[in-house]
Design brief:
3-stranded parallel sheet; 40% helix; 514 residues
Amino acid sequence: MKAAASGVGYPIVLTAGSALMANYRFGIGSGYASMFPAEFMPFWKMLGIFQLSSDKTGRMKMAQLGLSKVEAALLASGFTRDDVIIANPKRLNRVIGPATRIVGIGALDPVGLAYGAKVTEFTLRQFHIPCRHSIMSAEFLRVVRNPDIQKRRQSGQLKVIVGGPGIWQIADTGMQEHLGIDCILDGEAEGVVGDLFRKALAGEPLPQRVQGRPVSAKDMPRMMTASRCGVVEISRGCGRGCRFCVPGLLKFRSFPLEKILSDIEVNWQAGIREVSLQSDDFMRYGSTSLKPARKPVLQLLQAVKDVAGTRFGPSFVSAATILQDERLLEEAAEVMELGGRRYSTIEMGIETGSPDLLAKHMPGKVKPFKMEEWSDVVVGAANALHDNHWIGCYSLIIGLPGETSKDVVRTMELVDRIKHFNCVITPVIFVPAGRLRRTTFHTFDRMTPEQWALFHQCIEQTLENAILWLGRVSNRLVNLFMKVVIHRLFMFSAGLFRKRRYKLLRKMGWRFPK
């Protein structure tokens, strides 16, 4: 590259913290390690979880999907690869120079307010393990506070622009100026990033905040840089209108099959041999309503299988969509060749078992069914996933605005009905987002006894299933010594965690059967 060769830097540098940018060694699920405190980073480095792959100039060979999308939009708007680089955050000194005018940084959990980081922090504090910043947060701060970036920014040479799902944390905490950020890009970037960056390159003043706008499916640019862990977007938005959810407020769009296959090919050329189909409801791919679309879904899955074999899977599904066409779920499992010891994981949002909270915050989530049928819809969907060899990763929200003890009890009753399925149930402490962005955080010190009971009910269910899955994994190990070590280590940790939880609950007045 001309800019790199001359040592003057690239005009536009896109980057992110290493925890967000990395190609996770053990698959996309191991990215959850980034929720742990920054003090754990040496341990994860030893295991090689956060791998950064770049060429000698510092250009990433694969990047986080959002940055790949921003780069694609810039290239489609007339910029070239001599102008734009997605850079290794560990090699910024190679790509930032006198010619650099913009540093664009992706953010997921910039100041450590994401629910996963908060739950992990609470859990580790029970073992007296200090938690100052999550790895994801610490690595973002390392980039945005990079001395060279801030020195050039203060001299007026360049602008710092931050975008991504986590920018609300910066905006709502008033930390934009403190972190040295000139502009926050909120929402979908593809439709505005070209004009915004041209203004910055021209030296024009930038607004502190720019609102993104949706791009039609047919106008979405094709990726040029591979996305880590083989993540490929098949649709965007949900359209069910849940007040706490950002994707739920976005218009649902399905991307053309040829574009999806083109993005997979980019990943394939980079040596990525897995495909994660990102969507907020994969069974609605190709649909123009809340109903599942059988033909487009099966065509998509078969086309991906023809390229990737069986190393692929969708990321998310809706309970109400499953129950409208359970046979489609079965056929999807058949295409993916699930069965026997072969499973696929998938996320599904349960949120609550209360029809009252459903009506107040997420009336579209249950459609076309009735509010009072929600628990039965969830149980039916969970049963269908279980029967077809899907491991469900279910989330529910504790502390939604207006939640009462009665609402929590209804949710606990729902958990009792699904806990025996092959699944993990994750309790999420309410974090303001979407239309509820201006409401109050629900924190651990504000939780009621009923909410604590629900939280621990979910943790217990997860531990029980984890023990079962551990047995399946350890049975595949040939080395008897390793089988014993792994099993004993996990059982010791799980037992210790249970004792800490029971002690905490007893302090709150709860009694357990002997």
